[in-house]
Structures are given as C-alpha cells and as structure tokens.
Design goal:
The chain is built from 24 helices and 16 strands. It has about 725 residues and is α+β, with helices and mostly antiparallel strands. Strands 7, 8, 9, 10, 11, 12, 13, 14, 15 and 16 form a 10-stranded mixed sheet that branches. A 6-stranded mixed sheet has the order 1-2-3-6-4-5. The two termini are about 25 Å apart. The model has no long low-confidence stretch (mean pLDDT about 80).
Length: about 725
C-alpha cells in the first residue's frame, strides 16, 4: 500500500482524523481567501489612481488652461476643474472637455445639484450641464467632480495653482495597512490550521510511531502524513480561491479615502495569485512534515509520550531585548529615519509574546498548585505546569488580537487631538489667499456678491506675519483690525477700545518692547512696527498657532506681506454654502480654504482607521475564537486516556469540566491583560512621534476583555468533548 492509499484509508476509517482534515481545509480556505483579498489591494489603489490621474491642473501646448481645486458641500469633497480651451487628451479623461458655458458633472454630484437649491450648490457651476462623467473617469463611484468650461482669457492661474493635483499618487497608508493585514489575518488563520491538525495529533503520532517500530522507513512515514495534509490543503486552497470572489464584493463596499470601490479593482496580480495558491499549501505541508521530527528520530519516545522540557526564566530576557530595540527605534524615527527598524521592533514585540507566554503560563500553574483550595484548581494548575506550551497555544491568537486592538484604540484617540489644530479663524469661516495689491478690489466684489445673494456674512482682511524682537525671539502674528478679529477669529479678546495696539501673548514673547516684522519683501530683514501700545493677549487656546494680533495701522508699507487672506464668517451652514457659491462666481478658479478642508483628510483617515480596526479585530476575534475552540477540543482528545482513567476512578465529569475551563480562562486572563497593557505602552511611544496627546481611554482594554470572553466561550466546548470521552470505553484506546 503506497502512502497516498494509506492516507485515504486513514481518512475513511478514522472519524477524528477526518474531522481534523475538514477543519484544516476550512482554515486553509479562510487564509487563502483573506490573503488573496489583501494581495489585491495594491492593484485596487493603482486602479483608482489611473482613473483619476487626469484630474489635475496645467497649461496645454495650445494655451488651454486647467485649474484644479477642492471645494466642499455638506462635508463632502468636490474636485473642481475650471477649463478654458481643450486640454491634451489623457487616459480616462473625457473625450471632449466642456466649452465656455458648459459643465460636466459626475453622477453623484448631478444628483446633489438636482436635490438642493441652486444658490447653495448648482450656481457654483455656471452653464449648461451637457453630460455626466463616465465611471472610468472617477476615482470611486461616489466621487464628486465638476468640469466647468470658461471663455479663453478668463482664467489667469498662478504656477502653484496649476501644479495642484486633486488626488495623491500613491496611497501609502493603505498599502502599509494591507501588509499589516496580511500578517495579522494570516497568522490567526494558520493558527486555526495548526489547531485543526492538533485535533488528531496524539493519535496520529502514536499511529506513525507504531509504523516506525514495525519497520516503516522515515520517508514512508513522512510521505503518508504529507499526503494526508496535502489533500486537505489543496481542497482548502481551491475553496478559498473561489471564496475570494464574493469577498471582493464585500470589500468593495468598505469606504476608504472618501468612497467605496469598483469590484473590478480587487483583482490580484497573477504573481500574487500563484504565490498564494502554491505557497499556502506548501507552508501547511512543511509544517506537518516538521511536526514529525520526534516520531522520525525517536518513535519509542513518541509512543511513550515522554514529558517535554519546561520553559526557563531566560525567556524573560526577550522582553528586555525588544523593549530596548523599540526605544532605540523610536529615537531613530524621531530623528527622521529608521522607520524600517521601527516596524521590525513591532514585529519583535509580537514575537516575544510567544516566547514569554509559555513561561508565564508555567509559573501560573506552579502558583495554582501551591495555593489550591479546590480540586479543580489543582488539576488546572498541574496541567498548566506540566505542558505550558500546549496551554498557551490555545490563547496565542487572542493575545495577538488584544495587543493590536489595544494599540490601535490608544493611537486613534491620540491622533484625534491633532485634528483641526493651529487655525486662527472660527470653525465656520472661509478664507482665500489673494495678492495684497488686489485684496481691496476682491473684497469689494465679494461683499457686493454676498449682499446681492442675500447671504448673511461678515467679511474682513487679514495677513500672516512673523513678529520679532531684538533678542531674537519670534512669534506668529495676525494683522487684522480688532473688531473683525473678535468676530471672525478664535482669539479671546476682551476689549477693542483705545488706540491701535499689538495684543501679544506674553508666554510666547516675554519682555518685548521693540517689535518688528520679518519681511521677505525687504530681503528677509526686520521692519520695525510703528510705535503703539502693547496689550496682553492671555488665556488663549493651546492649539492656536497665532500669538499676536496687530492693528493694520501699525504695519509700515515696507513690512506689509505680499499676500492677504479674505475671510468670510457665516452664521449658518446654508449661508456658508451660499458663500462658497458666490466665491466661485466672483473669483472663478479660486477655492476657499476652511476648517472643513483642514479636517477632511484628518477625519477621513481617522474614520478609515477606525473602520479597518473594527473589521480587522472582528475577523481576528472570529479566527482566534475558532482556533481556541478547536485547541480546547484537541486538548481533551490528547489526554483522552488520562481523563478516562480519572473518570473510571470516580472523578466527577463536572469537576473535570471546571478544571478544563479554569486552565483555559486563567492563561487567557493573564496573557490578554498583559498584551493589552503592552499595546497601550507601545501606542504611547508611537504617539510621541507625532507630538500627539496621550489620551488614555478604558476602551483600550476592550480587546483584552473581548479576548478573555472569546477564550471562555471557546473553552465551553471542553464539556461536550469530555462527556463524549466519558461515554466511550477505555478499551478503545
């Protein structure tokens, strides 16, 4: 009988081996489907970029002008292209751009225009809507894009406006998360496969040891197991490849960077498909082959089930090593480099858990056997002490989920402290930058347009400057009249009465008497301010970048900046949308900055990270829960003779069930709480790279609590498995 025939006969005759093979195939299928989906993400980001690459500004050879900018409507980003002439053809761009008085809209933007009053949205795009952009011209299905045609000579763009690209070229964050996701989802999937193979490990090991003692060669033994495992791995890989197709439809519905995806985006490259389809079965077969070393080398020892060596306390040195590596990598990253080392340090921290975990489990068992007061605690303690590696194996996946989840749920609130920081204007203000020479004319036209449209708004001019003192101290300042600043900015101003003054935050520039402006127009030299009063500007918000308010009357002509900001403050959201519409009419091609624009990318990234964290942790929890349940069942099967002997000696099944649950719950409790604390500590270190606030939230330990719950639920299968053992005769072994 050849090894393949032997493997098929074992699968046909032995129900436990058959169950192990089925569960192995399920684990391989899950791993294959998830890895194929993750491997298709780089292709998906490239597809998005290729479709939207034409959405940029520029000047064509025939004088055609395109100005690209970003507008907002109800917290949604609009990519706006103002065009004069016909730009050169580009892939995925419209076949013909609109002429003067014509407009092209994306389908989603056309729906918005039809549903809302013209003064809030539609009037921003003057002209006849001649059609809608095709799907192949959009970054994602919901993208809001407007292409507005203008007469030649109306658009006079500046170089910085022309160079603006509406869409980033590479989504490095998503590519990084895809790589992390492959690791974090593949590891629990392979743990699931390993747990399934352990379901019949003891019986397989004794069977193969008997074959070796009967004269079978090592090659025959290894080939039989490889054939048995390869069959399950190949079937699982085929099923996983098929499951990856509907997974693409689910993945396409997950928003990222402002919108969902086209299903066709998630097409893995041929090389990745081949690597996964071939690589995963090879890994599973290789792992099965390596697990036979003890049977091949010492079949008598395997048959007699000799006790393995216990882990030593030297494993704790790994914590010291990875802690030092992480601290050093943080130092290097703070200096502007060493991010590869930082990722390596994070991987080492995850690996150290599998090194230290068995030792901690063994010490926990030793403690229980010393302080036990109930028989269940004694039995659980003896099990944890005698085979800590096997006891820790059941919670290893949960530890990974607790560490990653706690780290993510600590980093995200810290990053939120950076959102919107630094802006001096009110939350609802709009502001555009124009040349100082044309500022008064633009302000007049803007004020008249707002008044004609019935928009309630306050308008003002401001300039950003750098204030200096003779001793070299500097502070950022805002040139604006006090009354307007009190209404439009976030500065806390008590009184605007009296002569022109410089209101200064003393903590930013103490003991200041002679003040000057750093002027680029004057060759970088300092231009003294016109003498005036210096008043305090105290108790300001910490996240405001402006430390001084300067009355325009004190700024000499030689120190006046070349750029001026026109600021519009509106009382309601509807007025703000109308103000954007007026801006597009009065100043074609100029798009207003706002808190919405400042926060859009930040909030979008944070929302994406929250969503990815939730989905990832849910998948990890399901995978680790399944592997923990299978490991708990295999633990009962591995000790089948021991439990049968205890039951035959009169030990109640209920007592053994409590012992099994205790041995599953206590390692889970200690390991997941330790992993949660480690995740929080690592997160605080990562936040130091961004100068973000370290915000501790109890939710950071939610993954640890969830991990304990998953381990407890998984251990519940021990009871049914134990009752099955008690119902069988000892002679069957």
């Amino acid at each position: 009988m050849n090894p393949v025939q032997l493997a098929l006969r074992v699968l046909r005759e032995d129900s436990r081996t058959r169950l192990s093979a089925v569960l192995t195939a399920v684990g391989v299928a899950v791993a294959t489907a998830l890895v194929l989906f993750m491997a298709s993400i780089p292709n998906a980001t490239d597809a998005r970029q290729e479709r939207s690459a034409w959405q940029h500004g520029g000047i064509g050879a025939d004088g055609a002008v395109t100005i690209a900018g970003i507008d907002f409507f109800q917290d949604e980003k609009i990519v706006r292209l103002d065009v004069a002439g016909q730009p050169a053809p580009e892939p995925n761009a419209p076949a013909e751009f609109p002429d003067a008085g014509e407009v092209l809209l994306s389908p989603a933007l056309a729906e918005h225009v039809a549903e809302h009053p013209g003064e809030q949205l539609g009037d921003r795009f003057p002209g006849e809507v001649i059609g809608e952009l095709a799907p192949e011209s959009l970054k994602f299905p919901e993208q809001l894009v407007a292409v507005v045609g203008h007469p030649e000579g109306v658009l006079s763009p500046e170089p910085d406006e022309l160079s603006h690209v509406a869409n980033s070229s590479v989504d490095y964050l998503l590519l990084f998360l895809a790589g992390v996701g492959i690791v974090l989802l593949t590891v629990p999937s392979l743990v699931l496969v390993a747990s399934a193979s352990r379901l019949a490990a003891a019986r397989r090991e004794r069977r193969l040891a008997a074959l070796r003692l009967a004269g079978a060669t090592p090659k025959q033994v290894v080939t039989a197991v490889i054939a048995e495992t390869a069959l399950a791995a190949v079937v699982g890989t085929a099923v996983g490849a098929v499951l990856s197709l509907p997974l693409r439809h689910l993945g396409a519905q997950i928003p990222w960077s402002g919108g969902t995806w086209y299903v066709s985006d998630f097409t893995p490259p041929g090389t990745a498909l081949a690597a996964v389809v071939i690589g995963i079965p090879l890994l599973v077969v290789l792992a099965a082959g390596l697990g036979l070393r003890r049977v091949v080398r010492a079949p008598v020892s395997a048959a007699m089930e000799h006790r393995r060596a216990r882990p030593s306390a030297w494993r704790l040195l790994s914590l010291v090593a990875v802690g030092a590596l992480f601290a050093f990598s943080l130092t290097q990253a703070n200096g502007g480099g060493g991010f590869g080392m930082l990722l390596s340090a994070l991987a080492a921290i995850v690996l150290s858990a599998s090194i230290v975990g068995p030792w901690v489990t063994g010490m926990l068992g030793r403690t229980l056997t010393g302080v036990w007061r109930r028989p269940a605690l004694l039995l659980a303690g003896r099990r944890l002490r005698s085979d800590p590696q096997a006891a820790y194996r059941s919670v290893s996946g949960v530890v990974l989920a607790a560490f990653v989840g706690s780290m993510a749920l600590t980093v995200l609130p810290g990053l939120e402290t950076l959102s919107g920081g630094g802006r001096p204007y009110a939350n609802s203000a709009l502001y555009v930058e124009v040349s100082s020479e044309e500022a008064d004319e633009h302000l007049r036209r803007l004020t008249e347009g707002l008044s004609a449209s019935g928009t309630e708004a306050i308008t003002a001019k401001s300039q950003r400057v750098i204030l200096t003192t003779p001793n070299g101290a500097t502070a950022s300042g805002l040139v604006m009249d006090c009354a307007s600043a009190a209404e439009i900015t976030r500065l806390r101003i008590d009184d605007c009465g009296g002569p022109p003054a410089v209101r200064l935050d003393g903590s930013a520039m103490p003991n200041s008497t002679e003040l000057a402006l750093m002027s680029e127009e004057a060759g970088g030299s300092d231009v003294p301010l016109t003498p005036g009063e210096v008043r305090p500007l105290d108790d300001q918000k910490d996240d405001i970048s402006v430390s001084a308010l300067i009355d325009p009357a004190l700024v000499p002509a030689a120190g006046a900046p070349a750029e001026t900001e026109l600021v519009i403050e509106t009382p309601t959201a509807a007025d703000r949308e109308q103000a954007r519409t007026v801006l597009s009419q009065v100043m074609p091609g100029v798009v207003a900055d706002s808190r919405d624009l400042m926060l859009y990318e930040q909030q979008t990234v944070l929302s994406d990270l929250r969503r990815v964290t939730t989905v990832g942790l849910s998948l990890i929890a399901l995978l680790t829960g399944a592997s923990a349940a299978i490991t708990a069942a295999s633990s009962v099967f591995d000790r089948r003779k021991t439990f049968a002997a205890l039951i035959a000696a009169g030990t109640p099944v209920r007592l053994l069930t409590r012992a099994l649950r205790t041995e599953a719950a206590l390692p889970a409790l200690v390991a997941t709480m330790g992993a949660g604390a480690g995740g929080v500590a690592v997160a605080f270190g990562l936040l130091s790279l961004f100068d973000a606030g370290s915000v501790f939230t109890p939710w950071a330990f939610a993954p640890a609590v969830l991990g304990i719950a998953v381990a407890l639920l998984a251990s519940a299968v021990s009871g049914p498995m134990l009752r099955k053992v008690s119902a069988e005769g000892l002679s069957e072994e």
